[in-house]
């Protein structure tokens, strides 16, 4: 049986698109979700192992590791997608905000990588860790300061883990800018955001799926960050 891929925060948007892609290609998946949406029932019927995990809980990582190890003795990859888009403007408790951003975007991936490296090393080929970071790692963000700092930490972890786990495990990051809009985004916001990149489009989750497949299929790329920003860095 093919070893599964673990994807965190995969009940919607990019994470869900990755799960559905792998299911379509008969790749076993273990995923985590914070809130149980209707899609979870459908995914479970398709054979996806869905584990409820609230990474704000102190014991969430230990519980997740134990659950994953009950289901499999090896992993093909871990894709760290779980994220929060909280910001200073919406959260006046800046100390709590910073701790929360660092926890979900850096501490949780760090702990999961350390705790489940044995499962990745048990895979019969080169395994992968992929961190989903953000375009703002390069630029910072005046409106999402803690968020940007935490994603930059995750980007740096990619380099450290790549050196630690080579050559048996490749570790890379994907840094997207706009991929898909939210349902509540206004037309004015969409127009303004589209103008920020050279390509000026809403590319859709397929761009991240393609980027993940590129990294999974490579035997040589490690310790790198793949930008998926539509040329935004040149604007």
From TrEMBL:
Q: Which SUPFAM superfamilies match?
A: NAD(P)-binding Rossmann-fold domains
Q: Does the keyword Oxidoreductase apply?
A: yes
**Keywords from the UniProt entry:** NADP, Oxidoreductase
**What GO MF annotations does this protein's record show?**
oxidoreductase activity
Q: Which residues form the signal peptide?
A: none
PANTHER family, alphabetized: DIHYDROMONAPTERIN REDUCTASE, OXIDOREDUCTASE, SHORT-CHAIN DEHYDROGENASE/REDUCTASE FAMILY (AFU_ORTHOLOGUE AFUA_5G02870)
The identity of this protein, by name, is Dihydromonapterin reductase
- The species this protein belongs to is Pseudoalteromonas citrea
């Amino acid at each position: 049986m093919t070893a599964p891929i673990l994807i965190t925060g995969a009940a919607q948007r990019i994470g869900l698109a990755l799960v559905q892609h792998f299911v379509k290609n008969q790749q076993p998946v273990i995923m985590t979700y914070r809130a149980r949406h209707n899609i979870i029932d459908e995914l479970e019927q398709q054979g996806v192992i869905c584990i409820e995990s609230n990474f704000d809980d102190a014991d969430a990582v230990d519980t997740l590791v134990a659950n994953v190890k009950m289901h499999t003795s090896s992993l093909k990859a871990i894709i760290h997608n779980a994220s929060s888009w909280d910001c200073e403007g919406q959260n006046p408790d800046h100390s709590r905000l910073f701790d929360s951003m660092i926890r979900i975007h850096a501490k949780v991936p760090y702990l999961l990588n350390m705790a489940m490296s044995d499962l990745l090393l048990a895979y019969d080929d080169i395994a992968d860790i992929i961190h989903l970071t953000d375009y703002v790692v390069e630029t910072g963000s005046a409106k999402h300061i803690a968020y940007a700092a935490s994603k930059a930490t995750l980007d740096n972890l990619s380099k450290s883990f790549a050196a630690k786990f080579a050559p048996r495990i490749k570790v890379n990051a994907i840094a997207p800018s706009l991929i898909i809009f939210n349902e509540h985004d206004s037309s004015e916001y969409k127009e303004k955001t589209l103008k920020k990149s050279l390509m000026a489009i809403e590319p859709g989750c397929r761009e991240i799926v393609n980027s993940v497949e590129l990294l999974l299929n490579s035997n040589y790329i490690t310790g790198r960050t793949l930008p998926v920003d539509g040329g935004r860095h040149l604007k």
